[in-house]
Amino acid sequence: MKKLVLLAALVATACQQDTKNLERKVDELNKKVDQLLAGGGNRAGAAAQQRPQRAEPDRAKTYSVPIEGDHFDGPADAKVTVVKAYDYACPYCEKVRDTMEELRKKYGSDLRIVYKQFVVHPQVATAGALAFCAAAKQGKALQMDALLWDKGYKNHNYDKDATAEAGGQAGRCWESPAGCPVVVGFAQELQLNVDKFKTDMKECQAVTTKDMRDLQQLGVGATPSFFVNGRFISGAVPIENFTGLVDEEMKKANERIQQGTPQASYYQTWIVEKGQKTLDAPK
Fold it and tell me: Which CATH homologous superfamily contains domain 72-273?
């Protein structure tokens, strides 16, 4: 029973960045549980207390989350910005799609959602991340996003990055002349310029790398993760977890805008420039 609880805790609401070896890690953790239990409850409890926790953002603080160059859904001058860190093979990211849509409907022009790729399943989600970025350059980001979920994820239909599985020795589909038939098929369905799309996929590697670096610097290690005007929330949680935070941030935004902050520069002024740029050093 304890093993089942341990496994559930690992996968309950988020996809961990190192899920490639999840089964092996679960086996290792189960063995450790057996050893700890064999050594007595007090020893097991002490070991659990000593086990290091991965640092994550302080939910009470506002973090500086840059969004320049990232695609977003909603007005550029929205009072509240939700930055979404996700990947296209994460079931919890798919699960939270409806919640994001509900938020957009509820808050209308006062809210925007920014898409940041955070690839935790590199073998199967990298091509999707690059395809989204490349489609955005032709004005079809949201349409590509829908196809990646509805015809890619739901049908287990992925272009694989063989390098992620072979330690860098195999090829990347977006660097091959044949080139990523799944996402290229989606590009054709959206009537994109396919040659430009393929070229942009390669260039989008730098965008994805920067997004991941920005997020990791702030302690993100799993998907989905979110920053609501710089305040952290994670997992496929109910909409109420978001609305409470959005309402708090909306109230602050309204007050600051009334005091003179231009609405169009609110996020840059109060989140990017004034927000905390790194995690606190461990105590």
Answer: Glutaredoxin (3.40.30.10)
